Amino acid sequence: MYILEVTRGKKMLLTGSILIFGFMALAVFAPFIAPYDPDDVKVEKRLLPPGEHHLMGTDGFGRDIFSRVVFGTRYSLFLALVVVSINLLLGLMVGSIAGYFGGLIDELIMRIVDILLAFPNIILALCIVGVLGPSIQNLILALVALGWVGYTRVSRGLVLSIKEQGFIGAAKALGGSNMYIIMRHIIPNAFPPLLVLATLHVSHTILSIAALSFLGLGVQAPTPEWGAMLSEGKQFIFTHPHVMIFPGVAITLSVLSFNLLGEGLRDVLDPRAREVLNV
Amino acid sequence: MLLKITNLRVYFKSADGFVKAADGVDLELYPGEILGLVGETGSGKTVLGLAITRLLPKTAAVSGEVLYRGQNLLALPEEEMRKVRGRQVSMIFQNPLSSLNPALSIGEQIAEVLREHQGLKRKAAWQRAGELLELTGIPAKWIRSYPHELSGGMRQRAMIAIGLACAPSLLIADEPTRGLDVTIQVQIVELLHAVTKGVSPPRSMLLITHDLGVAAALTDRLAVMYAGKIVEYGRTGEVFRNPRHPYTRALLDSHPSNGLIATKGFSPSLINLPPGCSFHPRCKKARKKCAHEPPLVQRIGMDHGVRCFYA
Amino acid sequence: MLEVVGIKKVFTSGIFCRRSIEVVRGVSFRVNKGQTLGLVGESGCGKTTVGKMIVRLIEPTAGRILFNGIELTRLDPRKLRKLRPKIQIIFQDPDMAFNPRWKIRDSLGEPFKLNRLARGKEIIDRVLELIETVGLHPEHLNRYPFELSGGQLQRVALARVLALQPELIVADEPTSSLDVSVQAQVLTLLKELQRRFQFTCVFISHDLNVARWMSDRIAVMYRGKIVEEGKTESIFGSPRHPYTRALLGAILVPDPEAGRTWRVASLNNVSPEVNLEKAGGCSFQDRCPHVEKICREKEPPLTVPAPDHRVACHRFKDLVPVQANVTGKVCFL
C-alpha cells in the first residue's frame, strides 16, 4: 500500500519537476529560444493566426505571441517564486518564535494573525496596489502582506508538536540555547511539510499575479506577463482567440506543474513512506 | 481442535529484500484454551495475529493453512471472511487510542458492531452495548464518553468490550497490557481471565505478549517466537519450569523478577536472518553445526517441542 | 549529592480564564553521591515532572533543589549554564529523543560542539569511543534514528549523556517502551556505567520490580506526593503504605505456580473525575481498602515507622506486616 503511494508520488514528482525544469529553461534561455523580440511592434503583421513564421500567431500590435509567452515565463514564474519564498521564510520565523516561546509572545502574534486572516485576500491586495500604484514592487508587497500569515499558522502548529518531542528537551539539557534549538532542530524539522505547502502555493500565486495583472494592477503592459497578455487580448476573444489561448495555456500548464510537484513532494516526504522498510 | 495453523509464511516485499515476518509457523489451539504467543518486537507475533484474521496489508504474501474448525480461512472469499471476523474470531488490538474511532462514543462503536454483525435494532444494540461495558468493568453511564475522555485502562476495557460484542469463540489479544500501569495491568489480566475462563463454555484466546508475567498468569500453553519461527512450545508450567530452548531460558532470565540477566546481541532483522539457527549468534550453547544447519522442531515430551539441536 | 526540598509544580493553562492543576505537591528527598533513588508511581503521579524539574527543563513553582550544596533554583542563568552539563536526563521514548533528520554521529557529536569540549577530528575520536562504551558498533554512527531499534537508541541516548561526564543522571522510564530482554540489556548497561563513572542517579519507573534492581533507595509517589520512602530492602521487606503494597501485589511473576496472587491484589477502582483537591484528607482514600474516618478528614503526615523509612499513612500500624520474598512474590491484602 505504502509502496504504491511512493511510486505514485514519484511519478507526479518527476512529471512536475520536468515541466518546471522546462519552464525554468525557457526563462533562462528566453533570448535564444524566442525567434523575435517580444516588444517588436509590426503593425502590418497584426493578428496573424498561428502558422509557419509565427508559431502562436501575433497579437493586436503584431508582436510574436510565442516570443512573448517565452519571455513571460521570466515574470510570472520569477515573481511567484519570490513572493512564496518571502512568505515562507517570514511565516516560518514568526511561527517558530510564537510556537517555541509560547505565552504572551504567542498570544500576541496569533491575535495579529487572526486579525489578518479575517481580511479577504485579493481585496486587500487590490487596495494596496490601488493606493500605492501599480508596480512590480507593490505587487510583491500586496501578495506578501497577507501571504505570510498562513505559513505562520501552520509553522506554529508544527513547532508546537516538534517542541514536545524528546530531542528538543535533550538538546536543552545538553546545553543548547534557544536560538540554537530553533535554528538547528526546530526549523529543519518544520521545513519539509511547509515546503509542500509552499510548492502548492506557487501555483496559487501565479494565478493571483495573473489576475492582478489582468485587472491592470500588477505588471504593466507592454511587459510580456501572462496575465497582462490575457488582458490585452480580451478584446479579440471572439475574432482572434489565439491571442488569449496561448498565454492562458501557459498559465494552466505552469499551475499544473507546481501542483504535481507539490502533491508528489507530499507523498514522498510523508514520514510513513520512510517506514516502509521497518515492518 | 479449534485452530490449526500449518506452515504459515508471511513475507513482505521491501527494497532490501523479503521481510520474513512468519517463516513456517505451526500452531494448534484447542477449544477453551488460552495459548500464549510470546516474543519480542519484530519477532513476527503481531503479523501472525493479523494473518489469522486476514487483516494484513495487500502487499503481504501469505502461504500455508489456517484451519478454523476445519475451514481454511486463507482460502475463504472476503465476504465469508467478514462473517468470521467478529462473530467467530475477534481481535483486540494493542493500542486502543489509535484503534478506537476518536469521533464516536464508545457506546456507538460497540452498537455499530452489533448492528452490523448481529442485525440488532438500534435500541437493542445500544442496550447490549451498555451491558457489555458493565461486563468489562466500565460503568454503563459512561456509554456516551469518547475514547480521549477515558484513561488507558478504561480504553483497553472498551476495546475488549468491542471484541466481545458478537460473542466470538476465539479472541486474539495483541499485547493487551502494553503501556499500562502495573496496577491496571493486573486488572486487565483479571478481566481477560474472566471473559475467557470465566464463561461457560470457556472461550479460547490467543494471547500475544512480550510479558512473561502476563503469560504465566493467563495461559494454558505457550509458544515462544523468535525471528519469525516458533522456537519452543508446550504447556505453560512445563515451559516455565523446564525451558529447553536457550532463547526461552534467556527470556525468562531477563525478567525483572528473575534478576534482569541480559543476553548479548540484538534480535536479527527479518530481512537478513543469520544462516542456520537464527539465534546462534546470541546463543551460549551454539556450536559449529548451528551456524549452517537450521534446526527442526524436536518433540521432547508430551506436547513439548523445541527447535534446537542441543536442547 | 542531590537534595530536593518541598518542590511543587502548578501548571496553569489559558490566558483569560486560568485553570491550574497542582501536579507535584511538595516533594522532598535526597540522594547521596553515586547512589540511585528509584522514584516509583503510576502515570500522572508527577514523577516525570519531578525529574524534569531536577534537570531544569521545568521551573518549580516552589521549593528548592540543591546539587552539591548549590541551590539550582536560585542560580543566575550564566552559572546555571555552566552547571547544566553535569545534570543530564534520559527520556522514556528513545524514538523521539533524536532529531530524525540527523545521523547518529551528528547527534552524538552535539554535546561536544555545544559545550566546546572538542572539535574537528577530536570529536570523531570521542564519538567512536562513546559508541563502543555503550556496546554498539561504529557502523551505527552512519545510521538514522529510525534505522535503529528502541534498545539501540536508548544506548545511544546513554552515550550522548556520558559525553558530558555528568555527575547526576535522571533516567525517566528509560525502558518502559522496550521488551523485557532489551530492558535487561539497557539496565545492565546503565548499572555498569554507573559503577564505572560514579554518577548519581534518579531512576523513574512505574514498575517497582524494575526499580528495585536499580535503586539503593525507593520513593513511592502517589498523586504528587511521596507516600513512602526508604531503603530498597525495607520497602520490599516491610512495605507500610497500602499503595506500596498494592504495587508490590501487582507484580506479575513469570511463574505459573505463583498462585495467581494477582486476583486478590487489585485496588478499588477509581473514577478519573474525582476531584481530590476539594475532598481533603488522604489522597489515596478512594482506592484504599483500609480507609477510615480519619483518612477522609486529615492528610497523613510523613512519619518514621522504622529507622530510615518514611510513610504517609494514618493506619500503617494497624496493617498486618507482610514480607515479599526474593522472587518478588507477595501474599497480602
From TrEMBL, chain B:
Q: How does it sit in the membrane?
A: Peripheral membrane protein
Where would you find this protein in the cell? Answer: Cell membrane
Instruction: List the GO molecular function terms.
Output: ABC-type nickel transporter activity; ATP binding; ATP hydrolysis activity
Q: Do you know which InterPro entries this protein is assigned to?
A: AAA+_ATPase, ABC_Ni/Peptide_Import, ABC_transporter-like_ATP-bd, ABC_transporter-like_CS, Oligopep_ABC_C, P-loop_NTPase
Q: Please give the GO cellular component terms listed in this UniProt entry.
A: plasma membrane
An annotated GO BP: peptide transport
Q: Does the keyword Membrane apply?
A: yes
Domain ABC transporter, residue spans: 3-252
Subunit details: The complex is composed of two ATP-binding proteins (NikD and NikE), two transmembrane proteins (NikB and NikC) and a solute-binding protein (NikA).
Q: Per its record, how is this protein called by name?
A: Nickel import system ATP-binding protein NikD
Name its species: Desulfofundulus thermosubterraneus DSM 16057
